[in-house]
Structure formats: C-alpha cells, structure tokens
Amino acid sequence: MRLASFRPFGHACLVFALACGALPPVTPAAHAERLKDLVAIQGVRDNPLIGYGLVVGLDGTGDQTTQTPFTTQTLANMLANLGISINNQSAGSSNSTSALTSIQLKNVAAVMVTAVLPPFARPGEAIDVTVSSLGNAKSLRGGTLLLTPMKGADGAVYALAQGNMAVGGAGASANGSRVQVNQLAAGRIAAGAIVERAVQTSITQDGTMQLELNDMDYDTNQRIVSAVNNAFGQGTATPLDGRTIQLRAPTDPSQQVSFMAQLEDLDVKPAAGAAKVVLNARTGSIVMNQMVTLENCAVAHGNLSVVVNTQPVVSQPGAFSNGRTVVAQQSQIQLKQDDGALKYVRAGANLADVVKALNALGATPADLMSILQAMKAAGALRAELEII
Question: Fewer CB in 10 Å around end: N or C, the chain?
Fold first, then answer.
C-alpha cells in the first residue's frame, strides 16, 4: 500500500489522525481491538482523594506568612496537637493572646495533596500523591510532607500521606534576576500514601453485570454483543442502549475473575467513527480522521492586516515665551489586504484527496480554520467540526 504524501504550504503544517493510504472511495476496514480497550465495567472506577497539609524543610522558599496567615494557623494547630504551645501573654493584660502574627516562617508551606484511590485497593497498599502549593511559596524543592489525612467525597479518611517530595524543576534568583526551569510549586511522592480504608466495589447484581462503551455507537455495541454471545453462548450479552450492555455473569466470585479475563481478551472490530475535524484555536492545530470527505466548491480567501505605528512628538516652546515642553503622540495607520483569487476545490473521496485539495489553497492554519468552517456552512465539508 502506498502512503499518501502532501507538500506543506508556507509555515503551516496539518496534523492528521488515522492517516490512510491512497484507497478507493470506500469505508476502510477497522482493525480488531481487545474488548478491554473499548468498554469499562460499571462499578470498577477510581476514587479521587484530597487533603490539606504542610511541607517543611524548605530552604527559605516557603510561604510569606504575612500574606498567607492560614499557613501559620495550621502550624500552630499541629504543634498544639503535639503538646507544644506558642501562645504568650501580652504586657499589661491577663488574657492569653496568640503569637501567630509575630511568627515569621520561611521553611514551611501550605499545600493541597491529591491522589487517586484505584479500584479494589486494600488497606496497607501504597499509592502516589501529588503535592501542590496553596500559598505563595517560591519552591517546594527539598521539602517533606507532614502526615496528611486524605479524604474522599464522603468526608471519610481513606489514606494517610507523608514523605519526601520529588520536584522536577530547578531555579535560582539573585539581585532581582531569576531563572526557573519547569514548575517548582508542585511535586510528587511515589508511594507516598498508605491506604487505610477500602472502597466496597460490587460489579455484579442479581447475577448480572453491565459494560459501558467508551464511545456511544450502536454499531459497535451490536458487534460486541455478537462477539460475546459467540464466545460464551447466546443470551450472555444483551444490549440495553447505544452505550450499555448487560451480561449474565457467574455468581461464584472465583469464576468471575476467569470470566472477566476471557471477556476482556475478546477481539472486536469497532465500527468506523463519524467524520470529524478538530480545530485547536490555541495552538492552530488541525486534526482530521479518515472519514472526512469534500464536495466540489470554490474558495476565495484574502488576508487583511492593520498596522498602527505610534511615535512621540516633542513640541518645544519659543524662547522667553514662558511655555513648557509638551510630548504628543502621532499615529500612522496602514491597511493592507492581500489578493484572494477564487480557487476551485475538487471533491475528495478519501483523506489523501482532502489533504491535496486543502494544500492547493496555500492557506495558513489560522486561515484554514476559517475556510473549513465556511465549507461546513456551505455543505461542502462532510464532517463534524469540533473546536477545542
């Protein structure tokens, strides 16, 4: 099979997903995929955890406590729980006042700790955690996270995090100059949290379980049902809608593992997806899949540029006029529009023809985004447009 090639225009470059060769105008056959890559088992899911804690041992790069009072308050509460009091008694008063405002910390930072509790995790297992600065710490490099409870959405503690962080960035500053590589305000602790409570996971109910397709598609749903019934017998799989499939599963937990292992290893050819063009307005990237086609159309596109130059003009007063020097702004505006000849774009029955036709326009990615939207509005582009 000969791969399709195209010549990039100007400084633009199109990125195309699922690029195909010079094939006849027919729907290309999809490759078989494992069932585990197409579906998810209902009830088997990750659970996010979050916690608030302190990082200590920083080299003078911690929070500025005058601007982040919660850091000092958290430290005072932690020390109080350890039996250490930092309260003092103000002069001329019998009441005990807090010394929080007088504490200046440089090696402590308040952080948010996040983690993901995987399904079937049991107490005693270790999971990774991510630590992110909450205040105005300059760097978390070299810091140690103190014992931090990790809570779930129900408010219960599911893990305890603590340990030394690994920060991938580096930086230095002196006399107002600063150099920084990557992000210094976030780090990661591998196996930094110990699971304390398991989440009960039930994948079967009344002898049935449900599969959920990653992408809703009736054709793919029917192909999965046929593959499962051919492997395990008719009636094993029943489609409920375009995304959900109900399975008859063994009631014995020891047999469920073997059943799921065989199920996930089934090969299924998914149906070809809908024609789609994805436009990234931030980076200028354009991605098309192999189902995109074009109809005959004519396109004219010209670039319009406006240039505004502003220069200061100094007006000097005459001698002995008791005037003063005045600085005014003088602007020059230039308007330029490039010629946009009407060009004929031939119909394209496959991705290679579409690439060749769009390259013939000689447009930049920014202009091509507008052209594709206009083609879609005119009915010449047979694809769904998605802007991200």
Answer: N
Q: Is 30 helix (H, G, I), strand (E, B) or coil?
A: coil
What sign does the CA torsion over 348, 354, 359, 363 have? positive
Each domain of the chain, given as residue ranges in start order, spans 33-44+202-268, 47-195, 276-310+338-387
What integer pLDDT is reported at residue 1 of this predicted model?
Answer: 37
Answer yes or no: is pLDDT of 92 > 60: no
> CA dist 221 to 104, 165, 209, 246, Å?
62, 45, 15, 11
Q: Which two tokens stand for residue 161?
A: 């995090």
3-state percent breakdown (helix, strand, coil) of the chain, nearest 5: 20, 35, 45
Whether this model's pTM surpasses 0.85:
no
* CATH topology for the 33-44+202-268 domain: Gyrase A; domain 2 (3.30.1360)
Mean pLDDT of 122-127: 95
All residues at 6 or more sequence positions from 129 whose CB lies less than 8 Å from its CB, including other chains: 113, 114, 115, 145, 150, 161, 188, 189, 192, 193
Residue 381 contacts by C-beta under 8 Å, 6 or more apart in sequence? 277, 292, 294, 295, 372, 375
Query: What number of CA atoms fall less than 13 Å from residue 34's CA on the CB side?
Result: 9
- pLDDT tens column, 358-370: 888 777 888 888 8
Asked if residue 309 lies in contact with residue 325, where contact means CB atoms within 8 angstroms, the answer is no
